[in-house]
Structure formats: structure tokens, C-alpha cells
Amino acid sequence: MSGGDDEAIGGDRRDIGGGGENMSGWDEDAAAGRSASGAAAGDADRTASGADGSPDGRWHADAEDLRAYARGELAPPRLWSVDTHLVACAPCREALATVSDPVVLDAGWERLDAELDAPRPRLLESVLVRIGVADHTARLLAATPVLRRSWLAAVALVLLMAVVATDAGRAASPTLFLALAPLLPLAGVALSYGPVLDPTYEMAVVAPLHGFRLLMIRTVAVLTTGLVLNGLATLALPAYGLRALAWLLPALALTGTGLALTARWGPVLPPCLVGGAWVALLMVAHAKADGGTLAPFTALGQSVAGAVAVLAAGLLYLVRDRFDFSPSHAFFADHTDFSDRSAA
User: Fold this and answer.
1) Distance spanning both ends of the chain, measured CA to CA
2) DSSP secondary-structure letter at 51?
3) Across the chain, where does the E strand assignment appear?
4) How far is Cα 48 from Cα 87, in angstroms, rounded to an integer?
């Protein structure tokens, strides 16, 4: 009985054990099934979401690559790939911002903006800076219209024609050259300042810069250039000796007079009046010369030209403060809307 019971109990135990074994086997199969289905689902998700598991199904830059890119340590060809991808991928740009130093990033953008906004210096400006001219002064000089190649080429051509005509005529005095040479610096100075041709005139008017200083900077540059070109043309007339230099004092007198009158009548009218007066004087002198040297190029005429140049320089200094209120500034004010600046 007990044995039977034991057997029965043992049988029950075996049945239970068997049942346990069966249940254990069932659990293992179910777990294996669940693992297989989960793996399949994970593969499907990865296939649908992209190579790196991104939810939008696109390839994105690796986080380590982004960190190396931010540090400037990413080497080609990964650098090219990430650089091209960042242009069209906003999520990666956001991720790059999270791994980048914001201070360094902002400083880089500021340098980039400054580089893009900074105007490219021209050859003349670069040369002036290299020889010691201040940056802002070099910028004002480089923007002078009559220091451009077109104007310089035109002046050189005019002087060349005058020299050729003088040599061809073989006159006792280089009258044509002497009559023309003083007008070129006058015209150059007249065209170097004012609202007509100056591309920086608007900035000069609204900037805290004395108008007389800007005028003198331009005048010295243009006058020096004109005198150098005239001097080179004079060297092409060796047969006339010092007589070929008789244009110098009249050029200074005409330029100084035109500048002194600019403060009252603007940059256009005075050079026209002075140039017209010079031409009229030459015509009268030619009518009375009877084939000899014209009066403006004699010793007396040169003395008068020198005195006029000195008086014009003194008058220019006396009226220097009026250049900030000259008609050229009034012209600009009449043609510019200052409502925004007044409101500010």
C-alpha cells in the first residue's frame, strides 16, 4: 500500500516532473519564438529607418564624425561627405550644434560675416597701405574716380597728342602743351570731389569727417598724379629746356583758385569758370604776342601765376570750415531722404 502509494506518489511526481519538463520545454519554445519575432521586427525597423537607425529613413552623420568635424579633425573623404550632408540636413546641423563649443561657433560665424562683408582692397589701396598710409585714408584715395585707369589713360593720351603736335610744329615755344597742361590737374581735382562722380560722396557727407580734409586728401593725390604725368610729358620735349616747365605755376594757380571758390559755388562751376578764364587769357595773349612767347609763360607771367597760387592757398585755408556747408553738400541733402536718420 505504502509501496503503491509511494509508486503512486512517485508516479505523481514523475507526472508532475514530466509535466514540469513539458512545461519547461513549452516555455523555451515560446521564448525562442518571441526572440525570433523580435529580431525580425528589429531588422525591419532598421531597414525602414536607415543605416543608422534614424526615424526619417535617411543616412545621417555619425556622432563621432560630427564631434571630429566640430574640432576640425575630420579628414577627407569623410570630411567632404559630412560637409556636403550638413548643407541639406537640418537634424545633423542641430546635432552638430549640440557637440560644438557655442563660443567657438559664434566666433567663427562672426569672422565669416566680417570676411564676407569686408570690401576687397584694390591694388592702389593695397600699395598705399604697404607704404604706410592709414587704412581709412587709403580707402578714400582708392575711391577717387580720377585715379582710375581710364582717367589716367585719357590724360596720358592727351599729353602724348600735345607732345606730338608740339614736336611736329617745331615752334619757338611749346604753346599748345603749355596751354593744355595746367588744365588737366584742374579738371582732375574738380572731378575728384562732389556728388557727380565720387562713389563715396554719400558716406563722406554722413560720416564724421571734415569736408576740407577729404578735399585735401583727394587734391594732393590727384595733383601729384597730374604733375607727375605732366613732368613725364615735359621730358619728351628736351629741345625747349626749362621753357617746357612753364606750365607748373599756372597749374598750381588754376587749381588753387578753383578749390578756393568751391566752398561757395560747389565743385562744378568754379573749375569751369577758372578754366574758361585761362583759355580766354591765352587767346588775348596770343592776339598780342605777334608770334613770340605768350605773356603767361614769360618771367612776368610766371611771377603773377606764383602770386595767384599763394593767394589762392591762403584763401582756401580761410574758408576751410565752409566745405561742410558748401553747395555740394546742399545738393546732396536735397536729393537724399534723411527721414530715417532724423527719426533715429
Assistant:
1) 115
2) T
3) none
4) 24
Cell triple for residue 307? 602770386
The Cα 262–Cα 189 span in angstroms is 11
Cell 509508486 maps to which residue? 7
Q: What is the pLDDT along the chain (344 residues), one digit of tens a residue?
A: 344 444 444 444 444 344 444 434 444 444 444 444 444 333 333 333 334 445 556 778 888 888 888 877 888 888 888 888 888 888 888 888 787 777 766 776 677 666 666 666 677 778 878 888 777 777 777 777 777 777 888 888 899 988 888 877 666 678 889 999 999 999 888 887 666 666 666 666 665 667 788 778 888 888 888 899 999 999 988 888 888 999 999 999 999 999 999 888 877 889 999 999 999 999 999 888 877 789 999 999 999 999 999 999 999 999 888 876 544 444 334 433 433 333 34
Question: What are the grid coordinates assigned to 175, written together?
Answer: 604753346
Instruction: Read off the C-alpha cell for 228.
Output: 607727375
Q: Is the pTM of this model over 0.85?
A: no
Tell me how far apart the alpha carbons of residues 92 and 58 are, in angstroms, rounded to a whole number: 11
Grid coordinates given for 84:
556636403
d(CA 83, CA 61): 10
Cell digits for 154?
585719357
Cα–Cα distance between 320 and 304 in angstroms, integer? Answer: 24
